[in-house]
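Figure 6 in text form: structure in, sequence out.
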């Protein structure tokens, strides 16, 4: 055990890891269990015999599930994981939001929008070394916010732009050559594989105290659990996780959200377009914000399970909420105060109403505003309550598996409640 003092950040205390801690956010990794579509990704890969490391985790480590943050999107959940707190604390409540002060719609990838320090910042200030590799560059600046990249104590870069790294911006150079892979296409399984391969390279060369690897859900958007492509993806991931385990790391796995099929039997997406629905209810001039929106809409068409609506002055919030909630395919409608309380969201970045679709439906603004030409397979997406369950697994046993877990408990759990590594 280390004799260094625990690190406090955002009201939680984190002991130093006895060995390097690798936390992996597997984007879109739908778990098995009640409500899953044909079993979970990890479970199906294990059952197919292609993921021996994950099989050992399921057998002799910790293998349970947790709840992610709602909206179940990438940015709010990754930032919850790395701050240990919900969006009400760190401020990132979607991939995209409406800035009512400037009356502009904004991507939530600017570190200036972050309202809390990360666990990485706090540990680096205490003397720890940190390595962060994310598949897509949209997360990189948020995850690395506040880190000092000088002196070799921190590395933070994305697979997407691995050929553009610099010592001043990313704390590293020449990573493409060291990994031995070309920079992958952003719409590929290899984008995630590069992140894993880089993680192994950094563990061998840098051996950071804390490492965070975040993948892309390109595969999960296109392929259901247990399909050949999905199993091949998890087999690839399994090989790199086994290497990290063999290098003596504590390996912790969770996800930012699950993933569900959102198309009908005809293969067409089950979309509820909110702008025409509001018009039918007599509301003109409402602003529908879809927080799933990001620069990578090819595989989801900006269609997800969560929307927030800014209503015009004079609109009756209660009656509109009730009318929307009665629509087939809508699971829940809440006003701002109720949504912020239930989902721990920042009130100044949420509209008058929050709408959440049912399990196999998605929400859109208006049909003409969505380019669905990139949807070459039946739509799979996320954002609502139905994608809230995520994996929560470690290569060591946990002393606290019975409690209600959130994905953003993973650093706290790994550093406070794990027992000795299984033999």
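Output sequence:
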């Amino acid at each position: 055990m280390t004799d260094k003092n625990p690190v406090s950040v955002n009201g939680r205390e984190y002991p130093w890891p006895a060995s390097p801690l690798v936390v992996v956010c597997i984007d879109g990794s739908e778990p098995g269990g009640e409500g899953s579509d044909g079993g979970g990704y990890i479970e199906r890969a294990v059952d197919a015999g292609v993921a021996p490391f994950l099989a050992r985790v399921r057998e002799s480590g910790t293998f349970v599930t947790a709840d992610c943050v709602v909206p179940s999107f990438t940015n709010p959940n990754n930032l919850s994981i790395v701050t240990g707190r919900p969006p009400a604390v760190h401020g990132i409540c979607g991939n995209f939001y409406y800035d009512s002060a400037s009356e502009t719609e904004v991507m939530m990838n600017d570190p200036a929008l972050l309202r809390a320090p990360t666990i990485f910042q706090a540990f680096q200030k205490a003397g720890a070394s940190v390595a962060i590799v994310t598949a897509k560059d949209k997360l990189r600046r948020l995850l690395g916010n506040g880190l000092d990249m000088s002196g070799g104590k921190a590395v933070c870069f994305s697979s997407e732009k691995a050929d553009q790294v610099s010592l001043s911006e990313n704390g590293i150079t020449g990573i493409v050559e060291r990994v031995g892979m070309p920079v992958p296409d952003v719409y590929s399984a290899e984008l995630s594989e590069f992140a894993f391969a880089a993680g192994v390279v950094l563990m061998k060369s840098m051996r950071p105290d804390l490492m965070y690897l975040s993948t892309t859900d390109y595969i999960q958007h296109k392929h259901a659990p247990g399909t050949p492509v999905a199993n091949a993806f998890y087999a690839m991931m399994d090989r790199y996780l086994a290497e990290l385990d063999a290098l003596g790391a504590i390996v912790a796995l969770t996800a930012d959200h699950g993933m569900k099929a959102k198309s009908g039997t005809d293969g067409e997406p089950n979309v509820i377009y909110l702008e025409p629905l509001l018009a039918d209810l007599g509301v003109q001039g409402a602003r529908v914000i879809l927080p799933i929106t990001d620069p990578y809409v090819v595989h989801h068409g900006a269609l997800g399970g969560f929307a927030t609506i800014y209503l015009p002055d004079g609109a009756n919030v209660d009656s509109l909420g009730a009318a929307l909630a009665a629509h087939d395919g809508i699971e829940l409608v809440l006003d701002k105060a109720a949504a912020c309380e239930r989902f721990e969201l920042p009130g100044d970045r949420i509209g008058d109403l929050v709408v959440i679709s049912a399990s196999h439906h998605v929400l859109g603004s208006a049909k003409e505003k969505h380019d669905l030409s990139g949807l070459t397979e039946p739509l799979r997406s996320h954002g609502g309550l139905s994608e809230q369950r995520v994996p929560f697994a470690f290569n060591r046993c946990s002393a606290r598996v019975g409690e209600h877990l959130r994905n953003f408990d993973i650093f706290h759990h790994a550093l406070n409640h794990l027992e000795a590594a299984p033999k």
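Caption detail: Residues 7-259+384-416 form a domain with the Alkaline Phosphatase, subunit A fold (CATH 3.40.720.10).
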